[in-house]
Amino acid sequence: MSDKQMTEADVVDRLRSGMTIGIGGWAVRRKPMSLVREILRSDLTDLTVVSYGGPDVGLLCAAGKVRKLVFGFVTLDSVALDPHFRAARQAGAIEVEEYDEGMLQWGLYAAAIRLPFLPTRAGLGTDVLTANPRLQLVADPYGSDEELVAMPALHLDAALIHMNRADATGNAQFLGPDPYFDDIFAMAADQVFVSCEQVVSTEELTAQGRAHRVVIRRLLVDGVVEAPGGAHFTSCVPDYDVDADGLAEYVAAAKSPRAWTAYLDKLLAGGSNPEGVSA
Amino acid sequence: MTNDNEVTRAEVCAVACADIFRDAGEVLASAFGTIPAIGVRLARATFAPDLMLTDGEAHMIAGTWAVGAPAAGTIEAWSPFRGMFDLVWNGCRTIVMIPVQIDRYGNVNISSLGDHDRPKTQLVGVRGAPGNTVHHSTSYWVPRHATRTFVSQVDFVSGAGYDSVRKAGPAARKYHHLKRVVTNLAVLDFEPESGAMRLVSVHPGSSVDEVRESTGFELIVEGEVPFSRLPTDAELRLLREVIDPHALRDKEVPA
Question: Which end of chain B is less congested by CB atoms within 10 angstroms, N or C?
Answer without folding.
Answer: N
